[in-house]
UniProtKB/TrEMBL annotation:
UniProt record similarity statement: Belongs to the PEP-utilizing enzyme family.
Residues annotated as domain PEP-utilising enzyme mobile: 167-237
Organism (species): Ralstonia solanacearum
Cofactor(s) of this protein: Mg(2+)
Domain of life assignment: Bacteria
Name this polypeptide is given: Phosphoenolpyruvate synthase
Length: 369
């Protein structure tokens, strides 16, 4: 993850940062290794004060031009990934690495590295898998932390002094969290925040507690009303969703290390790139069908005709296209980039097994909405 300014805002969860996924085998082979990118809002940044200003640091707004593009260029991402592989190889285990890009010399520096203690410890242990058995209107979305589902009444907390209002089983909704919130976070069935990325305080604590969290929603404290019953789902890929009402949840337990290999090489159907890495953990012979139109629907969310006709479309559609295409050279470049990323994510998840992608066959009566 990356954002502008000092790293404190990322750790605090005060900003929604950019995210980059790098595939190690193509990195080692010297080929283009970035398989997925997500642009964050990056509304503010913390920077050092100038001579004569009060204090040592200050928080300022990020200009719109910088917010609407990625905070790192591809060359920076690749350089960082190479450093990460070297550090991981040296310690012989997954590592959580903090870095910074110097504002004067433009060089990238590694600031600290410590063992990753949550995901790496789950290998071979009994794992709970959650699946929603119903549907309901989606109230808001953000970054999913974990793969669980939590339900309960919303408890909107705007001030740490109100934390005692949160009862066991409540869904904690806040702008952001800091270490002072940890006692109350343990009571929550789920956590939802306006701001933050995968490495912010709320995300880190949620992983350690095993509590589902959706961070970086932007407007959760406004949209979710106190006392409303909701379902918080982190079981549908990278995007976490907050549904209206209490949805029935199916929970199964499996020990991945004990799953036997299958004699028949059964291939999977995979249409959602966000679920590819989870599906790849199940014994399989690769992907026999990845429908391109499903990848377009899940990874792009814009009909190709809207991209082709842009900018000669109505004003609302024009704004929607421009919003999702932030950080890309043009809406057409966005479409191509996201399509490539979707295919690359599925291919990387199942590597080195075969992945068969079927070209799209959009029909005139499909995907009108």
């Amino acid at each position: 993850t990356s954002s502008y300014g000092l790293g404190e805002t990322v750790v605090q969860g005060a900003v929604n940062p950019d995210e980059f996924y790098v595939f190690k085998p193509t990195l080692a082979a010297g080929k283009y290794p970035i398989i997925r990118r997500s642009i964050g809002s990056k509304l503010i940044k913390m920077e050092f004060t100038q001579a004569g200003e009060e204090g040592r640091v200050k928080t300022v707004d990020v200009p719109g031009e910088l917010r609407n593009r990625y905070s790192l260029v591809d060359e920076d991402v690749v350089e960082l990934a190479k450093y990460a592989v070297i550090i991981e190889k040296h310690y012989g285990r997954p590592m959580d690495i903090e870095w910074g890009k110097d504002g004067k010399d433009g060089k990238i520096y590694i600031l600290q590295a410590r063992p990753e203690t949550v995901k790496s410890q789950s290998v071979g242990k009994v794992e709970q898998r959650f699946r929603l058995k119903g549907s309901a209107p989606v109230l808001t979305t953000g970054r999913a932390i974990g793969q669980k589902i939590g339900t309960g009444p919303v408890r909107v907390i705007n001030d740490p002094a109100e934390m005692e209002r949160v009862q066991p089983g409540d869904v904690l909704v806040a702008d952001m969290t800091d270490p002072n919130w940890e006692p109350v976070m343990k009571r929550a069935s789920a956590i939802v925040t306006n701001r933050g990325g995968r490495t912010c305080h709320a995300a880190i604590i949620a992983r350690e507690l095993g509590v589902p969290a959706v961070v970086g929603c932007g407007d959760a404290t406004d949209l979710l009303k106190d006392g409303t019953l909701v379902t918080v789902s982190c079981a549908e890929g990278d995007e976490g969703k907050i549904y209206d009402g209490l949805l029935e949840t199916e929970i199964t337990e499996v020990r991945r290390g004990e799953m036997p290999p299958i004699d028949v090489k059964i291939m999977m159907n995979v249409g959602n790139p966000q679920l590819a890495f989870e599906f790849a953990q199940i014994p399989n012979g690769g992907v026999g069908l990845a429908r391109l139109e499903f990848i377009i629907n899940n990874n792009i969310g814009v009909h190709p005709k809207a991209i082709l006709d842009y900018p000669q479309v109505d004003s609302d559609l024009k704004k929607a296209v421009e919003s999702v295409a932030r950080g890309h050279a043009s809406p057409r470049a966005f479409y191509v980039d996201k399509l490539a990323e979707g295919i690359a994510t599925i291919a990387a998840a199942f590597y080195p097994k075969p992945v068969i992608v079927r070209l799209s066959d959009f029909k005139s009566n499909e995907y009108k909405k």
